[in-house]
Design a protein that fits this description.
Blueprint lengths: L2 H12 L28 H11 L2 E2 L14 E3 L2 E3 L3 E3 L5 H4 L6 H15 L2 E4 L5 H13 L5 E2 L6 H13 L4 E5 L6 H5 L9 H12 L4 E7 L2 H9 L4 E4 L13 H12 L4 E5 L5 H9 L4 E4 L1 H33 L12 E2 L3
Parallel strand pairs: 4-5, 4-11, 5-6, 7-8, 8-9, 9-10, 10-11
Antiparallel strand pairs: 1-12, 2-3
Bound molecules: flavin mononucleotide.
């Protein structure tokens, strides 16, 4: 199996919900939420791609870097690459049931494990979606990070109990689901949180020995509140452009947030990352690690766990080459100096 075969298989199975375009940039699927697109005009999805495309890496050739270090330790996890699989759920309504929810979550959990990384697990109105992902993670010793929607405290806590029972070490919440039409249309919207709400959510996680991540932070002020509320890490990103039309790209929001909180909490980022070069760009802007969403959906649907592992291997090779070409010996040393012109 190669990447081309995987993509062709995914295109057929997705039955038009994802066209598996040569460049996954949100043009063909603009406005398709539910679906694989960005919200409204698709501008926020496009901003993710444009923000990364506007960055240049600075070539350096006189140095001793040959086999750069790509592994990291992140909140107690040991990862072979600074890369996680973004949680993607609702394969039925977003991807025309290309595969079953269980086949999908199993592919990402197992493929991630084979490649030495870890998969995010989705949550949705239908409780079976979280249960399915957690069951896959439980079978693999808790190797998955569930992202629980920011429900009211009681249902949120119940779902956190499920995460703890599955043996997970980390749990997250995608706070930006406030903007998800899929929740609203099903009659279960979620709402913005206060500083106190966040502290309570973090306490719930910590009292179960779980580290706690907040996903979807795009403002310095919100990042600082997360830090002060005891959140262990944040993911800068706009939910793949699915929650606010005309939001900026993740790579646009990241530098200021990195300046504010870097080194004081885990800092992750996502949105529009399509391979190893984009990973290095996000690290240069201040991320400790990144998430990739849609390309993994294509890999998992078209190639199962093997497809996921293969796509990760491609990212690994691209990242390694980009690090050698920029003289970066260790992903932990990536910084703005890798960008051209230097910042
Ligand atoms: C169909 C679809 C479903 C998603 N479901 C979730 C979800 O349940 N929870 C969540 O936190 N993010 C969800 N996301 C967002 C991804 O985890 C990730 O943040 C985003 O896709 C990253 O952008 P990229 O696809 O350009 O890499 C979803 C994205 C897509 C495309």
């Amino acid at each position: 199996m190669d990447i081309k075969e995987i993509r062709n298989a995914a295109r057929a199975l997705a039955k038009g919900s994802c066209r598996v375009c040569p460049v996954c940039d949100g043009r063909a699927c603009a406005g398709e939420v539910p679906g694989m697109g960005g919200a409204g005009s698709g501008a926020a999805f496009a901003a993710n791609i444009a923000a990364l495309a506007s960055l240049r890496l600075a070539p350096r050739l006189i140095h001793s870097v040959r086999q750069p270090k790509m592994g990291i330790s992140l909140l107690g996890l040991s990862l072979s690459l600074p890369l996680l699989i973004g949680p993607i759920g609702g394969i039925g309504f977003n991807l025309n049931g290309a595969v079953s929810e269980e086949e999908y979550q199993e592919a990402v959990v197992d493929g991630a494990l084979q490649a030495g990384i870890i998969a995010g697990l989705p949550d949705a109105v239908n409780p079976e979606i979280l249960r399915t992902g957690l069951a896959c993670a439980r079978r693999r010793g808790g190797k998955g990070i569930p992202f629980i929607k920011p429900w009211e405290p009681e249902p949120f806590e119940e779902k956190m109990d499920l995460a703890a029972a599955a043996g997970c070490a980390l749990v997250g919440s995608d706070l930006d689901s406030v903007g998800l039409v899929t929740l609203t249309r099903q009659g279960h919207p979620v709402y913005p949180k206060s500083r106190r709400d966040l502290a309570r959510m973090a306490d719930m996680a910590h009292s179960r020995s779980l580290r706690f991540l907040i996903k979807g932070i795009m403002a310095v002020e919100d990042a600082i509140i997360c830090l002060e509320a005891g959140v262990d890490g944040i993911i800068v990103g706009n939910h793949g452009g699915r929650v606010l039309d005309y939001a900026p790209g993740g790579a646009e929001a990241l530098p200021a947030i990195a300046t504010a909180v870097s080194g004081r909490m885990a800092l992750l980022a996502d949105g529009g990352i399509r391979g190893g070069v984009d990973i290095l760009k996000m690290l240069a802007l201040g991320a400790d690690a990144v998430l990739i969403g849609r390309p993994y959906a294509i890999a998992a649907i078209g190639g199962g766990a093997e497809g996921v592992a293969l796509y990760t291997q491609m990212c690994r090779e691209q990242l390694e080459q980009a690090m050698v070409m920029t003289g970066c010996a260790d992903v932990a040393l990536a910084g703005p100096h890798l960008l051209f012109p230097g910042r």
